[in-house]
Recover the amino acids of this structure.
């Protein structure tokens, strides 16, 4: 069975500090990977997606970057956090093949508070 | 642009009553939209409830139904008789095959009273 793990569960960071959020998928080869963000009371927005190692497409510009260093790992980062980065970050995967209507499986999420 | 608008919550209904959560979409740059309902139960992760990829078709799961209506650009979620365990946040979403994008609505919190 496939499992998706996100770390950390929650993070409190200062404005201007760096950030790194991680996501690991086990039990599935070459998945499509996604990062989503939801501000408190806001809409769930897709930030990035990746269909293969080393390749990441940006969907929404939020002064964040993403990388896929391994087939099963997706990293979201920034060198300088803004207050507006606060919110809930979700990682998701879907089966390989590029078909979007395939079900996306979501991780438990990371709650980020920027002070 | 491409977007989804759904019923603003919270929606409160009593157990065994019927439910409809409205969802309309705009797919100006998507030739063949795929439509989804996702659900987040308390304490759980976001998960797919149902999906429909062809206009005119109906999807169903766990007693919920939604019909993809291209003429009215709608994908309303309905259930004939809700249960307390249906209390959750429901998200309507619009998908695009060509580049793996999904657009979510704001979510509708459903509260089912016993």
């Amino acid at each position: 069975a496939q499992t998706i793990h996100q770390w950390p569960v929650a993070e409190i960071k200062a404005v201007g500090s760096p950030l790194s959020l991680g996501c690991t998928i086990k039990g599935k080869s070459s998945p499509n990977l996604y990062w989503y963000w939801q501000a408190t009371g806001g809409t769930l927005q897709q930030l990035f997606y990746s269909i293969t190692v080393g390749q990441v497409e940006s969907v929404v510009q939020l002064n964040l970057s993403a990388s896929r260093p391994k087939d099963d790992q997706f990293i979201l980062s920034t060198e300088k956090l803004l207050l507006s980065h606060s919110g809930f970050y979700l990682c998701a995967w879907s089966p390989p093949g590029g078909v979007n209507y395939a079900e996306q499986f979501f991780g438990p999420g990371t709650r980020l508070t920027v002070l | 642009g491409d977007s989804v608008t759904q019923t603003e919550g919270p929606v409160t209904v009593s157990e065994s009553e019927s439910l409809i959560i409205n969802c309309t979409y705009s797919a100006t740059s998507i030739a063949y939209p795929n439509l989804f309902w996702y659900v987040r139960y308390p304490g759980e992760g976001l998960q797919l409830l149902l999906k429909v990829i062809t206009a005119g078709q109906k999807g169903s799961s766990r007693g919920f139904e939604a019909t993809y209506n291209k003429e009215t650009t709608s994908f309303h979620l309905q259930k004939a008789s809700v249960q307390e365990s249906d209390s959750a946040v429901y998200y309507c979403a619009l998908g695009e095959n060509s580049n793996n994008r999904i657009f979510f609505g704001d979510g509708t919190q459903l509260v089912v009273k016993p």
About this structure: The mean pLDDT of chain A is 92. The first strand of chain A starts at residue 3 and ends at 7. DSSP finds no helices and eleven strands in chain A. The interface with chain B takes residues 32, 34, 42-46, 49, 51, 57, 59, 90, 92, 94, 98-101, 103-109 of chain A (CB under 8 Å).
